[in-house]
Amino acid sequence: MGTHRVISTSDEPFRDRTEAGHLLARELESYRGPGTTVLGIPRGGVVVAAEVARALDADLDIVLARKIGAPGNPEAAIGAISEDGRLFIDKSLASYVRADSPYIESEKRRQMARIKELAGEFRAIRPKVPLAGRTVIVTDDGVATGATMRAAAWAARHENPHKVILAIPVAPAEAIESLAEDADEVVCLRVPPYFAAVGQFYMEFGQTSNEEVKAILEEASRKQRA
C-alpha cells in the first residue's frame, strides 16, 4: 500500500482544468524530468495531464484502460483491461459479487471494443509511450468513486513501471484512501468535507471534445519529434 498526501480540505473551486493541472504540477516537482510519463484519462483528464507534463518537462500520453464493473453495478470495479488486451481481475472481489467467467469474458469483449474505438481516434496521432522502468503519473480532472482511476493504475502497473503516482485535483476522502492501495503515492489537492460531484469544484467544466484531445496529443508528438 502506498502513501496518500492531501494538500487541502478546501472546497474552493478551480477556475478550470488547466489551473488544476498547474497546481498539481507544483506538488509533483520531485518527479520532474525525462524519466517521467504523465497519463491522462480521456477526455477531461488529458487537459489536466497536458499541463502537468508541460510543467514537469515529462512525456505525455493517454491511458485507455477500462474498468470491468460488477454485475448490476458497473461503477464498482472488479478488474480492468488494458489497451493491449491484458486483463486484471481481483478474484476475491469477483467471487464476492458473483462475477463468473462468462460474465467477465463478455465484459472483456465489450470494454475492449470501446478501447479499440478510442485507439482508432487517438493512436494515429500519438503512438503509445512504453512505461517499463519509468515513473508514471496518472491523472484525471477529479475522482468520485475512484473506479476509473483504479483501472488506469492497474493497467499501468502491468507494464512494470518504476513507480505509479496517482495525481488528482479533487476527490472524496474515502476514494483517496482506497486508491492508495493501488499506487506508490496518491496526491490530491483538495478533499472537501462535502462532495457531490467533480463538476461542483470547477467554475468552468465544459465537456472536453475528441478534437481537443487530438490537438493536445499532436502538440505532444511535435515536442517529442523536436
Task: Describe this structure as you would to a colleague.
With 226 residues, this protein is of the alpha/beta class. It folds into 2 domains: 3-64 and 128-225, Rossmann fold, CATH 3.40.50; 67-121, PRTase-like (Ybab, Chain: A, 2-Layer Sandwich). 38% of the residues lie in helices and 23% in strands. The protein is built from 7 helices and 9 strands. It has helices spanning 17-27, 44-56, 91-96, 101-122, 147-157, 173-179, 210-225; strands at 3-8, 36-40, 59-62, 66-70, 73-81, 87-89, 135-139, 163-170, 185-190. The strands form 2 sheets. The chain has a 6-stranded parallel beta sheet, sandwiched between helices. A 3-stranded antiparallel beta sheet has the order 4-5-6, sandwiched between helices. The chain is globular, with a radius of gyration of 17 Å. The model has no long low-confidence stretch (mean pLDDT 93).
